[in-house]
Specification:
The structure is a homodimer. Chain A has about 140 residues and is α+β, with helices and mostly antiparallel strands. Chain A has one domain: Arc Repressor Mutant, subunit A. Helix content of chain A is about 30%, strand content about 30%. Chain A contains four helices and eight strands, in the order ααβααβββββββ. In chain A, strands 1-3-2 form a three-stranded antiparallel β-sheet. In chain A, a hairpin with a 3-residue loop joins strand 2 and strand 3. In chain A, about 20% of the residues are buried. At the A-B interface, strand 6, strand 7 and strand 8 of A face strand 6, strand 7 and strand 8 of B. The structure holds a DNA duplex (30 and 30 nucleotides).
Chain lengths: ~140, ~140
DNA sequence: ATTACATTTGCAACATTGATGCAAATATAT
DNA sequence: ATATATTTGCATCAATGTTGCAAATGTAAT
């Protein structure tokens, strides 16, 4: 059962519609928050590791997914909102990692950081916050 | 030629003073900005890869170095300022990557991001900015 | 529908990085 | 000077990122 939206998403990015790619997109659509490669692999069932790696990479390149770094170690991925352009991922949201349940949420900041360095030209920010989420705050 | 400050730094962190560790510290002290593992290896000359890996890791653990993530790929390291505690790296500064010269600067933000999510408990931020630095702004 | 062509997949092979166990070497305190 | 805990160097391994290439597949043109 193919979501029509996913086919159009792929076509709009000039990517061919394959079952592998729709399977991967299905996995991401079934998760509200960002997930890591292990989760994708588990839910995907049997598959080729290299193909998945290239699929994720391509999805990031064209702006279907974006990558989130958890500390220095692991990476997570999430579907880009429609505002995501192919060229640059200009996220005006920040990533919040709950140190209790390890879920990664995308939040909308009221204000991005302000830097007092007038001679530097600042093009983009990436912000990651850590703390305790709603559910885990007992 | 051993810097007395480095010996004291190691002792204050309850680490033994070895030539390997002072060599590594020398490399970092000769750079104003953050450097990556390749740069450390190059300037260190012949050495054991695993020992360097463990040395860097220990330095991060005790708060001598801190780690900076460049995009999703590479890591850089820099000496912690004296305000860095062993337990937690509570940096109130952000990392700025010049996309032209690839230097990584530590900047002091006037204001950290503000999040409109009152039910989340936010403990820390990590911020990375990208743009063009002073030198490269032609 | 069939064909032609470019894309995508799956496999082999390899590079890089992160990590652990252990014996030898070394720093520190007595 | 010696005892002891730390550190180093080596072997080894796991996980991840990457490329080349032939076979398979999607897409567009006929």
């Amino acid at each position: 059962m193919l979501h029509l939206g996913m086919k159009n998403l792929l076509k709009s990015k000039k990517l061919r519609v394959t079952s592998f790619r729709t399977d991967v997109l299905n996995v991401f659509q079934s998760h509200e928050n960002a997930i890591d490669m292990g989760m994708v692999e588990k839910e995907l069932g049997e598959h080729d590791r290299i193909t998945l790696y290239r699929t994720i990479k391509k999805f990031i390149d064209v702006g279907i997914l974006h990558e989130i770094l958890i500390n220095g170690e692991s990476k997570k991925y999430a579907l880009c909102s429609h505002s995501c352009e192919s060229e640059a991922h200009h996220h005006d949201h920040i990533h919040f990692l709950c140190t209790d349940c390890n879920e990664t949420y995308c939040l909308e900041p009221q204000q991005m950081p302000v830097i007092n360095h007038p001679s530097f030209q600042i093009d983009s920010f990436e912000v990651q916050a850590k703390g305790i989420c709603d559910n885990c705050k007992s």
